[in-house]
Amino acid sequence: MVRLMADVLAYLQSFNEAATFAQRTVDAIEKIYHPNNAQLGMMVMRAGVTHWHAGLIDKAHAHVCRALGILMVTHGPLHPITRDLEGLRVQTEMELRLFRENEFAYERLREAALQGSSMRLMAEPQTGDLRHK
Questions:
Q1: 63-79, pLDDT tens digit by residue?
Q2: How is 80-125 classified by DSSP, letter by letter?
Q3: Which InterPro entries does UniProt cross-reference here (predicted)?
C-alpha cells in the first residue's frame, strides 16, 4: 500500500511526498528481506530516483550507491540496470558536489532543467576584480 502511494504521488509529480512514502517502503522491506536481495535493491533504487526528483540529492545519492552495491551482487556489473544505475550514481555524485560547493547555483540549475530552459552560469565577482574609476 505504501509503495502504491509512492508511485501515485510520483506520477502526480508530488515528489517530496512520494520520497517520504518511498523511504517508508524501503524501511519496511529492509525488515523482511536479506541485505543483498534483488527486490530490496530495486526498491532502494526507486527510492533514490524519487529522492532525486524531489531535489533531496544527499539522500538520493546515498540510496543510489546502496542500490548499486546490492545490484552488483545480484545482477552483476554487465546487466543493463546496473549500468544505468552506475550512470545515475555519477550524475548524483556530480550534483551533490555542486550542491555542496554552491547550493544557490545547484538550485538554479535544477529549476532551469525542470522548466526545460537553458541557463548560463556566470562567474561570481571576486573582490579583487572590482575596479572603481
A1: 999 999 999 999 999 99
A2: HHHHHHHHHHHHHHHHHHHHHH-HHHHHHHHHHHHHT----PPPPP
A3: TPR-like_helical_dom_sf (IPR011990)
Q: How many Å apart are CA 48 and CA 65, to the nearest integer?
A: 9
Query: Could you report the per-residue pLDDT of 12-51, keeping only the tens digit for each?
Result: 888 889 999 999 999 999 999 999 999 999 999 999 999 9
pTM of the model: 0.79
Provide the pLDDT for residue 70.
Answer: 97
Domains in the chain and their CATH numbers?
Answer: 2-113 (1.25.40.10)
Cell of 57: 540529492
The per-residue b/e assignment along 89-109, b for 16 or more CB within 10 angstroms, e otherwise, is: beebeebbeebeeeeeebeeb
